[in-house]
Write a structure and sequence with these properties.
Number of strands: 10
Radius of gyration: 16 Å
Largest sheet: 10 strands, mixed
Low-confidence stretches: none
Mean pLDDT: 93
Strand content: 15-25%
Number of domains: 2
Shape: globular
Helix content: 25-40%
Strand order of the largest sheet: 1-8-2-3-7-4-6-5-9-10
Oligomer: single chain
CATH architecture of the largest domain: Alpha-Beta Complex
CATH topology of the largest domain: DHBP synthase
């Protein structure tokens, strides 16, 4: 358990720059924090730090080995970690992001060796705080819903504070209302997108962009 005195609470709307810099510091230290995304609140940490991933699993009570969505700030950043199969796929990703659409992609050899898996789920989020933090980090950021395994995601910052204050290093919150709508997840490892989970964006609208 983390000492509750160490958990900092920041409003990203009112204290934007300090929030970004603190989140960056915590990420680099291997800490876990809560932050708003373009869908719901997420637990954040460094996906390349095994201890960070373990902390999130323990907080959520989630089985080890399950994959988390990874946020990046740009296609340029994404290409450091994945193998994009064709120009058509690249154009498609450019057309759908930034938006709440998460995409399963094949990792390059270096990233496969680090993460111990062949694929990962990525998204460029449509959220100012996330994009600023990611541009500072120049690395992927874990995004997974704020909840215990098997329970509904939490979208009220006051309830999140009550539930997780003692287990995370910071809670970054917004006054803007968030809705219980996770990102749509598609698999882009075949020639055409395959729907895995429909969320905020409708699959038929996504397919319109795959021309």
């Amino acid at each position: 358990m983390i000492d509750t005195k160490k958990c900092e609470i920041l409003n990203v709307d009112e204290d934007f720059e300090n929030s970004v810099q603190l989140a960056k510091k915590l990420y680099l230290e291997g800490s876990v924090f809560v932050y708003p995304t373009d869908t719901i609140y997420g637990f954040g940490s460094n996906p390349f730090n095994e201890d960070s991933v373990k902390k999130i699993n323990e907080i959520k009570g989630r089985d080890f080995g399950k994959k988390y969505i990874l946020l990046v700030d740009s296609i340029e950043s994404l290409q450091k970690y994945v193998e994009i199969k064709s120009e058509k796929h690249l154009d498609f990703l450019l057309s759908i992001w930034p938006n709440p659409v998460s995409v399963v992609l094949t990792l390059n050899e270096q990233t496969r060796n680090i993460l111990g898996t062949g694929t990962a789920v990525f998204r460029i989020p449509n959220n100012r705080f996330c994009l600023k933090l990611l541009s500072e980090l120049k690395m992927p950021l874990i995004s997974t819903s704020v909840n215990r395994a098997g329970e509904e995601p939490m979208i009220e910052s006051s309830l999140i504070k009550d539930e997780f204050f003692s287990q995370v290093d910071a809670i970054f919150y917004t006054d803007k209302k968030l809705y219980i709508e996770a990102s749509t997840i598609i698999d882009l490892n075949d020639s055409s997108p395959v729907l895995l989970r429909e969320g905020k964006f409708k699959f038929e609208d996504i397919l319109e962009k795959f021309k």
